[in-house]
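Discrete fold record:
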Amino acid sequence: MAETKITLEQVRHVALLARLELSPADENRLRADMDEMLAYVDKLNELDTKDVAPTTQVGEAGTPMRDDEVTNRPNAEAMLANAPSRDRNYFKVPKIIE
């Protein structure tokens, strides 16, 4: 059997912090899943990355911008077509503040 990196006590501690109630079977399954994740990270740590520049993201930085254009001109009649009550070009609503 492979060496385990996560103990059941650690799994129980994380479950307590996350306010999870785990059965013993769930605890064992979670421990095995976490061991598998850490083994994969160890495998990634074996890669030679000395010639790879550090980055914070792999895509282009920033948010793509577009020009602001009004594409739906206000049309009072269309907006108020299904209003239960209206007063000229306004929605009429019940008064809630005296």
User: Anything to note?
Assistant: The longest helix spans residues 24-45.
